[in-house]
């Protein structure tokens, strides 16, 4: 949903279970006032909303007169037609987490309809290609392309001539890849170009004479990085010969002239306002002890603003092993941001891998109410971060335990609330499940991430889907007409 005005004056029926009733009322009071709709809350005769199915809801749901829309929990997205075919009112699945209803109704992160365009080309480099087998090179090329690389750059080793460069390039081109060659050696470059390489990195005064015979675009670099010495002469020589060029003033690592190198990019752009340019951003992401996503986003943003339409990156070191994918996401964000004149905030969350966009909590009082309302002995786990380092909460029928340490929490659970009556439903399998979930909850507290039981933590583009184990393990958890 994205058009907020479409809800004004409507009556919406929200379907939930007993467990989420109190929290949902608070969310809906604010949401209905903000969007100017009225609502009814249908609390089904079941504790956990996630256990409901559309067919089961159809047997228990009473629809108030005047209802314009029915919103069911996100877990009901599959087989939604089982409910829709029994009612005349439109039905849709909301979010899994009721606290995400504002986002679902367009008040939070909503990607614009025209989002996803870009104009920055990514060159994904295969480093030290002469040391790799053909199969290793092809595999790396496939992975780079799948991650978003437009060109596969073959990195040669300085100081030697790779006799197999032509064969390597031909095999990649025959496999459908667009290929560039990264070398200053005219013999290597000539062999690569004859085999289908369509771009050469790099050309300066040492090899520019040979570039006239290659017949492909080249990347021009200075002879002296710090002063841009030789750059203007090489540009003039190549353009006079009709050779298409891209200019790369060379990005320096932090501690080696990083800020000054950024200034040189700006200087070159002013000097050559219409020239194609390239930035080798791997010099920063690979040579800085920090997660690469933020660095890549920042550098892509600089490139977008300066009109630098090519970036070269690699993903050798472990903390930068997904740089190409990060650049692919970042170039979409930067394009939209720069062309719309807005900051890239609440636009795209896939690069938020360490911490989530926001974290919400139920609060101690709400969890106490849940503990008193629950009738079954299944355990619900919450990670509450309102104060200090936060605590893991374990809630069941008449039980509400909390601690910062999962081991202490489990020890208290084993002893029972009165220290004498151990719980009856903690077999080895269930204990393993609780340990696994509490480990996730502790990770969420440590990194300030949102924890939802039986759901994968959100690691942005790195998220791995997780199958629900609680909801499929216990046959007694399945809803019935007398739940």
Layout of strands and helices, then pairs:
Elements: E1 11-16, H1 21-35, E2 38-43, H2 54-60, E3 69-72, H3 81-84, E4 91-93, H4 101-104, E5 121-126, H5 134-147, E6 151-155, H6 165-174, E7 179-182, H7 186-194, E8 199-203, H8 208-211, E9 218-220, H9 231-240, E10 245-247, H10 258-271, E11 276-280, H11 282-285, H12 292-306, E12 310-313, H13 323-340, H14 364-373, E13 380-384, E14 391-396, E15 399-403, H15 406-415, H16 428-447, H17 470-473
Parallel strand pairs: 1-2, 1-3, 3-4, 5-6, 5-12, 6-7, 7-8, 8-9, 9-10, 10-11, 11-12
Antiparallel strand pairs: 13-14, 14-15
Helix pairs in contact: 6-7, 12-13
> Which class do the helix and strand fractions yield?
alpha/beta
Task: Report strand %.
Answer: 5-15%
Fraction of helical residues: 25-40%
Query: For the largest beta sheet, what order do the strands appear in spatially?
Result: 5-6-7-8-9-10-11-12
Name of the CATH architecture of the largest domain: Alpha-Beta Barrel
* Number of DSSP helical runs: 17
Question: What's the Cα radius of gyration?
Answer: 29 Å
Provide an overview of this structure.
The protein has an eight-stranded parallel β-barrel, surrounded by five helices. It has a four-stranded parallel sheet with strand order 2-1-3-4, with helices on one face. It has 483 residues and is α/β, with parallel strands linked by helices. Strand 10, helix 10 and strand 11 (276-280) form a beta-alpha-beta unit. Helix 12 packs across helix 13. The protein starts with 10 loop residues before the first strand and ends in a 10-residue tail after the last helix. The chain folds into three domains: 4-104, 3-Layer(aba) Sandwich (Rossmann fold), CATH 3.40.50; 121-340, TIM Barrel; 364-477, no CATH class. The chain is built from 17 helices and 15 strands.
């Amino acid at each position: 949903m994205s058009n907020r005005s479409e809800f004004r004056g409507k009556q919406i029926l929200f379907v939930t279970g007993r467990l989420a009733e109190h929290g949902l009322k608070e969310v809906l009071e604010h949401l209905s006032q903000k969007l100017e709709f009225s609502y009814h809350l249908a609390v089904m005769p079941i504790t956990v909303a996630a256990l409901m199915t559309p067919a089961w809801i159809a047997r228990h749901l009473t629809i108030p007169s005047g209802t314009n829309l029915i919103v069911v929990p996100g877990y009901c997205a599959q087989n939604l037609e089982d409910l829709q075919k029994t009612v005349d009112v439109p039905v849709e699945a909301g979010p899994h987490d009721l606290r995400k209803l504002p986002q679902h109704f367009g008040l939070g992160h909503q990607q614009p309809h025209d989002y996803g365009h870009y104009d920055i080309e990514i060159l994904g480099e295969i480093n030290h290609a002469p040391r790799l087998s053909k199969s290793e090179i092809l595999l790396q090329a496939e992975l780079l392309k799948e991650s978003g690389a437009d060109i596969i750059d073959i990195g040669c080793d300085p100081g030697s001539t790779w006799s197999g460069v032509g064969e390597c390039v031909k095999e990649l081109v025959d496999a459908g890849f667009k290929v560039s060659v990264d070398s200053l050696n005219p013999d290597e470059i000539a062999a690569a170009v004859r085999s289908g390489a369509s771009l050469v990195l790099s050309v300066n005064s040492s090899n520019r004479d040979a570039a006239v015979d290659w017949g492909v675009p080249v990347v021009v670099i200075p002879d002296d990085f710090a002063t841009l010495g030789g750059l203007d002469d090489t540009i003039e020589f190549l353009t006079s010969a009709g050779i298409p060029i891209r200019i790369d003033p060379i990005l320096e690592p932090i501690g080696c002239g990083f800020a000054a190198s950024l200034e040189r990019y700006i200087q070159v752009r002013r000097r050559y306002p219409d020239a194609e340019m390239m930035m080798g951003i791997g010099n920063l992401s690979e040579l800085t002890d920090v997660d690469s996503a933020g660095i890549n986003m920042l550098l892509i943003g600089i490139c977008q603003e300066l009109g630098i339409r090519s970036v070269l990156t690699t993903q050798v070191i472990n903390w930068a092993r997904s740089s190409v994918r990060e650049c692919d996401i970042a170039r979409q964000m930067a394009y939209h941001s720069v062309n719309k004149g807005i900051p890239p905030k609440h636009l795209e969350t896939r690069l938020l891998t360490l911490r989530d966009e926001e974290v919400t909590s139920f609060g101690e009082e709400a969890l106490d109410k849940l503990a008193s309302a629950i009738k079954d002995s299944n355990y619900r786990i919450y990670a509450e971060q309102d104060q200090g380092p936060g605590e893991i909460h374990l809630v069941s029928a008449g039980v509400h335990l909390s601690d910062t340490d999962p081991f202490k929490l489990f020890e208290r659970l084993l002893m029972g609330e009165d220290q004498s009556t151990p719980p009856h439903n903690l077999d080895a399998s269930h204990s393993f499940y609780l340990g696994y979930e509490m480990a996730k909850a502790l990770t969420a507290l440590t990194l300030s991430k949102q924890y939802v039981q039986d759901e994968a933590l959100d690691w942005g583009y790195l998220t791995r889907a997780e199958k629900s184990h609680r909801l499929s393990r216990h046959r007694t958890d399945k809803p019935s007409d007398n739940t």
